[in-house]
Structures are given as C-alpha cells and as structure tokens.
C-alpha cells in the first residue's frame, strides 16, 4: 500500500534519458529540520529520562547499560543524519523516487523525492544494536539467545522490506514472508505462554491462569505480522509513518521504565531493559530520518522503514513480555485496520491510493470515502492542511498511549 | 567488482536514441512475454552426484554416526532438498521482477555474438539468500529445544548471514563504493564473534615448539580479530574470483562439498559430543547453502540466463566463514580456499593501485573463435589462460572448478599426512 506514486512502475511513457545522465552531485537535499526534531525529541524523551534518572531508584547495574545504550543511540542519531543525504543520492541515481501526491498541482509536486531511505535507518539500527552487545552481555549470558533472535528477525524484516521496495512484490507475498521473519523470535521466546484471566471472568472460565501454549505463540506471530503491516497502511502524510513510530516508542520506553521502577523481580526488569535496548536505537535513528521526512518531506521512508519499525516494536513487546500493553498503544493502528478491512477484503472497491483529496488552491486536504483513519478524521473534523492533520493524528496517537497508562492504572487491582 | 556491464551506470552516456528504444521494449512488452531459458537440470544432476555422493555415502554407510545426530542431519538434508525446488521455481518469477526494475547486465564474454545483446537479469542471489534463511529458520524447530546451548550460535549465525545478504543486496541495488563494501562486512561478523564461545588457542606445530616454548598459545582477542578478518576475506574473495558463467556458484558448491565431507569425517572419527555438535552445526548450514546454490546454478551455468550479483557472492562467502568459525575448522577452511587466496594474492598489485586496475579484469573474448585469451590482469582466470592457452568459457570454468576440487583434495591429503606430525 504505497502512498507515493512510483514513476518507474506506473508510467507508460519512458522517463527522459537525461535524469540518468545528470551528475548526481548536483542533487542537494533540503536541510534537515533540526528545530522541529529538537522540539519533538524534548516532548517525547524528557518524561522518560526524568523517570529513569531521577524518579525511580533504578539500581546502577541496570541503569548503566541503559545509559550506554542511550549514548550509542545518540551516536546512531548523528550517523543516520549524516548518511541520509549520501544515500539519497545513490537512491535517486537508481531511479527509486516518488512524487508527493499530496502536493500535486503545486511546484513541490514535481520534485523527485528519493524513496526507501528506511534502509539507512535499518542498517544504522542494526549496527548500533550489534555493537551494544559487546557493552552489555557476557559470552554466556542467557539473554544472548533472545538478543540474537531479535537481531535475526529484525534484520530479515529489513531485508524483505527493502526487497519489496526495490522489486515491488505482490501483497500476498508481503503478508506471508513476515511470518517467516517472526520464527526466530518465537523459537527464542522462552517465557510463559499463559494469560491471566481478568478477575471478573474467573468464575465463568473456572481458571485464574490459562496456559495457551502454542496458541500463545500463534498470537505472537500474528501480533508481529499485524504490527509490521499496520504502520504501512496508516500512512500517506509527510511524517506520519515515523511520527507514529516515535510516539509509540516513547510510550514503550516510559512503560518499561515504570515497570522497572515498580518491580523487584529481576527477570521482569531484565525483560523490560531488553525492550529498552532495542527501542532507544529505534527512537534515535527514526528521529534522525524524521528530520528529513517531516513536512515538507525531502525523503520518503519506503516500506523498508515501516516494516522495520513495526517488527522492532513487536519484538520489543514480545520479548519484553508486554504485548497486550503494546496492542493498546497501537489503538489508532487497530482502528485504521478495522476501517480498512472492507477495502482490503475487497468488499468495497479499493483504489491504488486511499489518500485524501488535495486542493492546490487552498492547500487543504479533504477526506474521501476511503476507510482510513486519515480520511475519517478529516470527515469528522473538517478540512486541514497536511502538516496540521499530521500533528493532529500524532496527538491522537499520544492520547491513545496516555489512555493506555490510565487504563492500566485503574484496572491494576481489578484486572489482575 | 561487478564483471557485467550495467547499462544504467556506464559513465559514457549511450546515444540518446538507445535508452528510449530500450525502455520502449521493456515497458510495452508485457511481462509474460519474458521467458527465462529452461534450467540446465541435466548438468546440475551430474554436478550434484559428483559432489554429494561421497558425503552421503560417508554419512549413511561408512561411518557409524549415532542415530539421533544422523536423523537431524537427514532432516536438514530433506529441508534443503525442498529448498532446492523452491529456489528453482522462484528464480524465473524473481527474474521478471528484477528485469522490470532494470537490474540487468550484458554478458561481456559474449560481446560480438547475438548472445551478447541479451539482457541478463542480475542479483538473483537474493532468491537463494531468502530461501536459505527460511530453510535455516524452519530447521530450528526440528532440531533445537528452547534451552539448547547451540541456539545462541545458531541465531548469531542467522543474524550475521542475514545482515550480509542485506548488505549485498543494497550493494547490488545502490552500487556502494568499494571502501564501504570492505567496512560493512566487519559489522556483519560481530554477532558471530560475540557468540563464539570456543577456545581462542592455536596449537603450535610440533617442530616449532622448541622455538616458541609453548605447546598451545592462547591468542585471545587476536584470535577474534583473525576470525573477523577471515569472514571479510571469504566474503570478498569469491567476488573477485568471478567473471565466467557459473564460476561463482561453482566454486561455492565445490568448497561446500569439501566442507560437508570434512564435517562427516570429523564426526565419524571422533567420540567427543561437543566436537560432534560443532561439525553437525556446520552441516546444518552448509547443506541448505549447497542445495539452494545448485538450484541457482541450473540457471547460471553456461550459458548464463541469470547473473548472481554481489548478493550471492557475499552471502556464500559469509556462510562458509560462519560454518568454519563456529564449527572450529577455520584453518581447514582456509586451505579449501587456496585458489581464492592465490587469486587474491595475484590481484593485490591492482587492488592496491600499484598496477593500473581497469573496471573489468576479464580475459579477452574473440567472437570469431569463441575462445578467451588471458590478459595481463592479475587474476587466476587470466593467469590460467596464459599458462594453458586460450579456452572456451565453459571449458575454462570446468578447468577452474576441477582446480578447486584438487585444492580441496590436497587439503585432505595434507591433513592426513600432517596428522601425527603437526598436532
């Protein structure tokens, strides 16, 4: 469900030969929007860092690796920032670009925007994650299995995402292959496969704890496939894909810190630390790309980014043992998926792009009848500019995450 | 070091009319019209028999391998066999997609003949890589329990190999500079080094003990550096010993067969279960490599209907380095790689820049006779031609593969004779 028109696969007249011959050095990417990123980072990370360093008394043996990981992630931020303009040149040279449909009719709509820059984020993430192993794990650590399985799953997902961006595989294949990418994860998941029956239902079910066994593993696999694809279909506005990822990532980090601070079980704390070790680099590298992808986008992220981000968060949720919480963070994505179901299933006609309609004269987007959160939001709240709509949707995402925290707090005694 | 001319990257612009007509042909021609030549299954059957029969005989009949281990290996062989057919089916499909994306090359060793005008799809190594990973991932379920010791090494191996496939494919698509190509594989080896929980000692050859003063020398971190360099070497060396139809995959399957035979021999002649596991581990990764590679060879054997791309060569090199390192037989692996080492040593002056290094260091093709003549470039291919006279491409490839097999056989002979003397 690509949101950008790909010239090389749709057009029936050949692009003029000049683009391939024009020297790549002439191409200059718009400068990164560092001011916006600074604001976003401050908004998202400050609560987390406060909780980690001051509010909770996290013992130093755990705090040190987390801070080392944060430091490596910061380095990853700057490396990604430097590499994106370089990669953009290479990607353009290979004719991997799109036109921004939401700017069609304005001069910006004719600019060739480099696609699939998610590959930079993916590779830098993997390198940070690989290097971090040396700082944290000893050779006989129990967590090494999970960590390597996580790396293998995420790496396979990045590979499949990039292959999809390059070769444009059919959507059935896109649905099937991530299932294979989750298998190393499922194999390495050595945790409980039980669910806690909510107290009010115990008398009906007759059990307090239900061991789902293999069905739990099936649930985990479906969760991964869902996360991987759901970010992909809640897309189409400049900065929306990365934006939703960093908001959810911030919520994940806050949740992890709260669990570490409020628990004495060392296994549980390790699980949440594990999730932090993967989410901090995701956050940092994503913010670096957001510097270029925020409105107006100078680069597009491609399926490479969306499947990578979805898989990483699914991995963090599964191996950190908070997958149910993760699902509540994903409420907007779940909503969007449910709204999209009629068109995805083919019951309602599904056009190539399900984007809102852009009016070049006013610069505003109007919601169409397509079943996406973007369109429904526009139909409920009226026309908006692209940037303002994106900000609205990100605030909605943040509210959904905040709602999750409230829910957990209120249900804490009642549910478990 | 791509040996195929990639039209979209030539520095000298083609005359303006050509690209348009090329693109008209590729755009207006419906995808279904493109048909890949049928796979050369007869050749593959012969090659497979030559390479695999000794390994299977040793595994099933000659050595008394314990049943549990043997059944794991046979399950892996069965999955690999399935992988062979899946790869065989997927390559024509992928070739269509790859061509649509303008990822193709022209066969330089056929320039001047009609075959030299055909657009050959590139980078089909991605199919081999993806199928390999899926087979390797699925095999975990048949073999390991959740608390197995080998799960760390297995996942680290998967992570390293997967990262290498990713980098190789990114290189095929974006054509990264060669310095980057050298640096990035070092990162891909890191999960491997982390997971290597084996000994970092080397055994000093008996004749030298008197001089060194030790029987066993613990190299510690230097051993890990050696392993990292070995992986980078293997990854790149197959890439530069290339340029003939079928040479890249051919050298891989010959070396893989040698690895399998070595593994089985070591399992058969040892009683230490840890030792058995190490070599079994190597078999679990090499059998899928062998099977999927043979499927690609069915299309890549002379005359090639697909090209393998850097994706394949770096994937193959990394997989063999991984099994050598985690199976604890990296020194033996190096001797299997003698032709690649020779080729690397011959290439050093040009790689370093002392001697001028052209874009392609291929032999010269004469369309009239159909023979290749060696140039002054420092590659094994050229040196072989200069020593033994002009040859056709197919015959030269076979010669070089026989040379590879002889080098591996020499290694077995060497190990046998040095067994008492060396260790």
Automatic annotation (TrEMBL), chain A:
Bilayer-crossing regions: 34-54, 66-88, 116-135, 142-163, 175-197, 218-236, 242-262, 274-295, 307-331, 389-411
Location in the cell: Membrane
Pfam families: Glycos_transf_4 (PF00953)
Main location (coarse class): membrane
GO MF assignments: phosphotransferase activity, for other substituted phosphate groups
Entry keyword annotation includes Transmembrane: yes
Keyword Transmembrane: yes
Membrane topology term: Multi-pass membrane protein
UniProt entry keywords in alphabetical sequence: Membrane, Transferase, Transmembrane, Transmembrane helix
GO cellular component: membrane
Residue numbers spanned by region Disordered: 1-22
Name of this chain's protein: UDP-N-acetylglucosamine--dolichyl-phosphate N-acetylglucosaminephosphotransferase
Species of provenance: Eruca vesicaria subsp. sativa
Automatic annotation (TrEMBL), chain B:
Alphabetical list of InterPro entries matching this protein: Glycosyl_transferase_4, GPT
Entry GO MF terms: glycosyltransferase activity; metal ion binding; UDP-N-acetylglucosamine-dolichyl-phosphate N-acetylglucosaminephosphotransferase activity
CDD domains: GT_GPT_euk
Entry protein name: UDP-N-acetylglucosamine--dolichyl-phosphate N-acetylglucosaminephosphotransferase
Cited Pfam families: Glycos_transf_4 (PF00953)
Root EC class: transferase
Topology term for the membrane: Multi-pass membrane protein
Pathway: Protein modification; protein glycosylation
Catalytic activity: a di-trans,poly-cis-dolichyl phosphate + UDP-N-acetyl-alpha-D-glucosamine = an N-acetyl-alpha-D-glucosaminyl-diphospho-di-trans,poly-cis-dolichol + UMP
Region (Disordered): 1-32
Function: UDP-N-acetylglucosamine--dolichyl-phosphate N-acetylglucosaminephosphotransferase that operates in the biosynthetic pathway of dolichol-linked oligosaccharides, the glycan precursors employed in protein asparagine (N)-glycosylation. The assembly of dolichol-linked oligosaccharides begins on the cytosolic side of the endoplasmic reticulum membrane and finishes in its lumen. The sequential addition of sugars to dolichol pyrophosphate produces dolichol-linked oligosaccharides containing fourteen sugars, including two GlcNAcs, nine mannoses and three glucoses.
EC number(s) given by UniProt: 2.7.8.15
Cofactors required: Mg(2+)
Taxonomy, superkingdom: Eukaryota
Cellular component GO terms held in the UniProt record: endoplasmic reticulum membrane
Keyword hit for Membrane: yes
Keyword Endoplasmic reticulum among record annotations: yes
Residues in coiled coil: none
Compartments, record wording: Endoplasmic reticulum membrane
Family affiliation: Belongs to the glycosyltransferase 4 family.
Primary site of residence: endoplasmic reticulum
Keywords on record: Endoplasmic reticulum, Glycosyltransferase, Magnesium, Membrane, Metal-binding, Transferase, Transmembrane, Transmembrane helix
Listed transmembrane segments: 44-65, 77-99, 120-142, 154-170, 182-205, 225-242, 249-269, 281-299, 306-327, 333-355, 396-418
């Amino acid at each position: 469900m690509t949101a950008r028109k790909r010239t090389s696969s749709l057009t029936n007249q050949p692009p003029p030969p000049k683009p391939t011959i024009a020297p790549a050095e002439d191409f200059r990417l718009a400068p990164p929007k560092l001011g916006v990123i600074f604001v976003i980072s401050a908004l998202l990370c400050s609560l987390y860092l406060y909780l980690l360093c001051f509010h909770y008394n996290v013992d130093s043996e755990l705090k040190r690796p987390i801070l080392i990981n944060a430091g490596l992630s910061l380095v990853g931020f700057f490396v990604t920032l430097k590499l994106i303009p370089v990669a953009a040149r290479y990607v353009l040279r290979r004719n991997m670009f799109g036109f921004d449909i939401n700017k069609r009719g304005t001069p910006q709509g004719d600019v060739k925007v480099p696609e699939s820059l998610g590959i930079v984020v993916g590779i830098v993430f993997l390198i940070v994650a690989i290097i971090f192993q040396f700082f944290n794990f000893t050779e006989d650590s129990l967590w090494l299995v999970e960590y390597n399985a996580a790396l293998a799953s995420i790496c396979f997902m990045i590979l499949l995402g990039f292959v999809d961006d390059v070769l444009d595989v059919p959507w059935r294949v896109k649905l099937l292959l991530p299932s294979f990418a989750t298998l190393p994860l499922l194999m390495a998941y050595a945790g409980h496969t039980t669910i806690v029956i909510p107290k009010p239902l115990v008398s009906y079910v007759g059990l307090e704890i239900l061991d789902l066994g293999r069905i739990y593993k099936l649930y985990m696999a479906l969760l991964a496939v869902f996360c991987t694809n759901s970010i992909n279909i809640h897309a189409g506005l400049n900065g929306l894909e990365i934006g939703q990822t960093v908001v959810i990532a911030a919520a994940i980090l806050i949740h992890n810190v709260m669990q570490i601070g409020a628990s004495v079980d060392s296994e549980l704390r390790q699980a949440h630390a594990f999730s932090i070790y993967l989410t901090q680099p995701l956050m940092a590298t994503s913010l670096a790309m957001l510097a270029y992808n925020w409105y107006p986008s100078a680069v597009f992220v491609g399926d490479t980014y969306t499947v990578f981000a979805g898989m990483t968060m699914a991995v963090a949720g599964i191996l950190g043992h908070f997958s149910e919480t993760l699902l509540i963070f994903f409420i907007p994505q779940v909503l969007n998926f449910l709204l999209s179901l009629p068109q995805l299933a083919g019951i309602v006609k599904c056009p190539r792009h399900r984007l809102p309609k852009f009016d070049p004269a006013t610069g505003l987007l109007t919601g169409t009848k397509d079943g996406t959160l973007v369109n429904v939001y526009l139909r409920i709240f009226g026309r908006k500019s692209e940037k303002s709509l994106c900000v609205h949707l990100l605030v909605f995402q943040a509210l959904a995450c905040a709602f999750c925290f409230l829910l957990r707090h209120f249900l804490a005694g009642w549910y478990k």
